[in-house]
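Researcher: Please translate sequence to structure tokens.
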Amino acid sequence: MYHSMIICILVTVHGITTSYGQESRLSLGEQPVFKASKAKNMITIDGKMNESDWESTEVRSFNYFYRIEKTSDKQRTKYRMLWDEENLYLFFECEDEFITSREKTRDGKPYLDDCAEIMLIPVADSLDIHFCFELNLYKAANDLIFLNNFYKGKDAVVKAYNPEYEVEVDIRGTLNDNSDIDEGWSMELAIPLRAFNNLDTFFKVQKGTQWAFIAVRQDRNDAKGDRRSTSTLFPIYDIEKSIHQPNRFGLLEFVD
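Model: Translation complete:
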């Protein structure tokens, strides 16, 4: 049932005017563009870059940092993407001196842990709705559909969105033990294109297709409390308001 509801929302949002009377468009061509190469071989989701395809696609670092209080809060992240006719593939490669995660339930708060996040708008010129995938090192997922400015200036989420996708993590260190210095962790995902409710039926993913998106890392270095720093692939505005700022998303371009 919620799939039908989501399709209705998407069709409405993609129109000239949303249900609450505001236009929402990205100025295509003005945002930074990140290119995802088409995978030539089968990608095995194991949290490791064993396939040569990962070396031939674009790699970019997260250079925008927020909530930095300690030197150890500013840690390096490298990011890659691939695609084929079935899936969108993501790879987060993170340096981390103190690897930390606590959340183990779905739709909980993995974003308070060491966590990788991706927010995607398959209809690149719409700002009203985006798909979110947030996962910590236990692979506890908070996946949702985010509705910006849904009613009287307030945002809303569709928490019933729980698609199936693959994720694996490779931890190089000791989880939840701050008595030693860790090396880091990697997360690899395969998100089926069908997870976007058959949007490819209307906007087929092929060479040259562009989606709006942003990739985010939450970095939790304290064994106790909820303090964490944040880094992003593209710059955003005041993070205290929200990480969900689609007018600051960049573009994902599907290339050969």
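Researcher: Any highlights?
Model: The chain has one domain: 2-12+34-255.
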